[in-house]
Each structure stands twice: as C-alpha cells, then as structure tokens.
Amino acid sequence: MSLSPQKPLNIVAVSGGLNNPSKTESLVQAILNELSEATPINVHFIKFSEIAHLLGGAIYRNQLPQRVQDDLAAVEAADALIVGTPVYRASFTGLFKHFFDFVEQTALVDVPVLLAASGGSDRHALVLEHQLRPLFSFFQAQTLPIGVYATDRDFTPEYTIHSELLRDRITLAIARALPILEWAPAKGQRANVIKEKSQQAAQNLGINKQIEQEDVLPSAAVPSLDAAEARLHHKKPKTQVA
Ligand SMILES: Cc1cc2nc3c(=O)[nH]c(=O)nc-3n(C[C@H](O)[C@H](O)[C@H](O)COP(=O)(O)O)c2cc1C
C-alpha cells in the first residue's frame, strides 16, 4: 500500500521502556518499520532507556536538560506520534506520564497517535483503551483505531518479535492508520507554527500552565468555542469570528 508522492511524514516515536534492551522499544521499532514500508517518513525516536534518568528531578520544563526539551519540541511538532509504554501496575509508567505532563496541552490537537504497549500478561491488553487512549483524548489528539499490545511471550530472548499474530496486528494497525495519516494535520506546516509555542513553553511552563489558545494550528482548525456557543444558544459571539 502506498500513498501518493508527498513530503515524508514527520513521525515522532516514543518508547517508555526503561530497560535496555527493551521489548517496548522493539515493538515501537517494528511499528515504525511497517509504516516506513508503506509511506515515506522521517523519524525522531525518543527512548526512555536513554532519557528516563534525565526526567525525574524536573517539575518545570526549563529545568529539563536541553536534550529532553528538544524531544518535547519534536513531539509538539510531529505530524503523527507512535507511542509505546511497558505496563507497570496496570498502567503506563510514571515517567511516561511525567514526560507527557510537560507537553503543551494544545499542541497535539488532531494529531494522529498510534498506541502501543508491552506487558507481562495478556490480561492487561486493555491498558491501551483504559489508560493510553484517555490520556491522548485529554490532548484532543486523534488516537488511531487499532492499537498494538504485546506480551513477553511475543519476543525472542533477544527481544525480536517472533509472534506471527503480533506481526499481523502491526500490519493491521498500519493499514488502518494510513488513510488517517494521509490527512495528518497540514503536513509540514505544523512544525513552524508549533515551534514558537514550544519556545514559549520552554520559557517557564510548569506542569499544567496553559498557553493562550487562539492561533492553535492551521492544521487542526479548532473551531471557535465562542462561535459554536453563539450558534447553539443564539448568543452574540464575545469575540469577532472570521
Ligand atoms: C514495576 C513493574 C510493574 C509491572 N506491572 C505489570 C502489570 O501490571 N501488568 C503486566 O502485564 N505487566 C507488568 N509488568 C511487566 C512489564 O510490563 C513487561 O515485562 C514489559 O514488557 C517490559 O517492557 P520493557 O522490556 O520495554 O522494559 C511490570 C513490570 C515492572 C518492572
């Protein structure tokens, strides 16, 4: 399957796996490999096996090492994300959440996000639906319909994937993702718009501080809430709507 000739998609992959080697990292890499078979991509791969120790002590974004600030800026500028985490205590890891707590809260509006997780048990497969999907729904991201869950049994002792069923699932996830990725918000245009927002965020943003939302993204075209409210309740909009 191949999309029409186009600029490569700007994909940011995040693996929350803390170990090295890491099953989560292998899983995310396998998803990236499958996607690259289907369409041109540029990849920025953020591996918690490399950055986890840099995250813990920071409560403000400008306390993070430059490397992690650059990773956050890459997440905010991505055309699409592929995110994977190991399951810890039936959820994503604390550090995975801590990283996304620093992401500017309007930066992922309408950004497609493919969800993945690796766990020790089949019984925690719904971590994709009950933990990861709500987190990215908070960001108003477009979580992709098919997520990928792997267990320890899907990997060889060297952490390559040996399960055909898991490979089929990855293929299905990418096949279902492609039509959505093709419309990934204003490919190539997000990066410039979001750069300024990331710079602002890097200045002083602690967890939970919001940047003004007015010029969100050309891509996401977030509707004016005032205008919507005015239509619903026949009120005069508070602000001028183009
Ligand atoms: C602290 C801790 C908690 C875990 N909790 C769960 C869990 O609740 N459910 C589960 O299925 N696996 C659990 N696991 C197993 C890991 O999710 C699994 O081995 C995962 O594939 C490890 O990924 P990695 O190789 O990328 O580090 C836990 C592992 C650790 C270290």
Quick rundown:
The protein has helices spanning 23-38, 48-55, 66-77, 94-101, 127-138, 164-182, 190-204, 225-233, and strands spanning 9-15, 41-47, 80-86, 112-119, 142-143, 148-151. By secondary structure, it is of the alpha/beta class.
Write the layout of secondary structure elements.
Layout: E1 9-15, H1 23-38, E2 41-47, H2 48-55, H3 66-77, E3 80-86, H4 94-101, E4 112-119, H5 127-138, E5 142-143, E6 148-151, H6 164-182, H7 190-204, H8 225-233
Parallel strand pairs: 1-2, 1-3, 3-4, 4-5, 4-6
Helix pairs in contact: 1-6, 3-7
Flavin mononucleotide binds next to helix 1 and strand 4.
Family: Belongs to the SsuE family.
GO molecular function: oxidoreductase activity
Protein name: FMN reductase
